[in-house]
Write a structure and sequence with these properties.
By secondary structure, the protein is α/β, with parallel strands linked by helices. The chain has a single domain, classed as Pyruvate-ferredoxin Oxidoreductase, domain 3, CATH 3.40.920. The protein has helices at about 20-30, 80-90, 110, 120-130, 140-145, 155-165, 170-180, 185-200; strands spanning about 10-15, 35-45, 50-60, 75-80, 100, 135-140. A 6-stranded mixed beta sheet has the order 2-3-1-4-5-6, sandwiched between helices. Helix 1 (about 20-30) packs across helix 7 (about 170-180), helix 5 packs across helix 6 and helix 7 runs antiparallel to helix 8 (about 185-200). The two termini are about 30 Å apart.
Length: about 200
Amino acid sequence: MESLAKDPYNIIITGVGGQGNVTASRVLGNMLVKDYFVTIGETFGASQRGGSVMSHVRVSAVSVWSPQIPRGKADLIVALEPAEAVRVLGEYGGKGSYVIVNTRPVYPVKVITGEMEYPPLDTIKKAVSDFTEHVWFIDATDAALQLGNPILGNMVMLGAVAGLNVLPLNKKDFEQAVSRIFPEDKVSINLKAFEIGFEMIND
């Protein structure tokens, strides 16, 4: 069993409803649970599609931890939606936090109706990069669309997490995890999404 960079290692997967946030946290937990204690807690914003969803995943070799990551203590933030990266980083991030951001925005209803403005992507990138130097921006949604389904962006992001080499994650563990969660005919496409994400982070 590989030792963790920190114990517990604190991961937040954040996005909005409909992006497969909870599924991503379940797959990640399944990949790690054979060797570590894994605790997962979820928080939901507005219940309808488009509300904020955040999963706290805490990984430890020695004990079970509470599911809530303390403020400022996230080691890795995986943002399926760019504005969510800024929101979560401000609350849970620290100078040493690693951050992976999917660059495709999901516009809230108030933005669509003109009641609010969505910040430009360059503004979001600057805010995240000013906070931590350990940041990667990838277009996971575009990669998922090329596979035929935007929801696969969550698995592209998990592949990117594996590509960082900050956690003991590999393709075999991912395949076993998705086999436990998805029907057999969905495994290969999810595996392809994972492989693409891994390659994107290592380009």
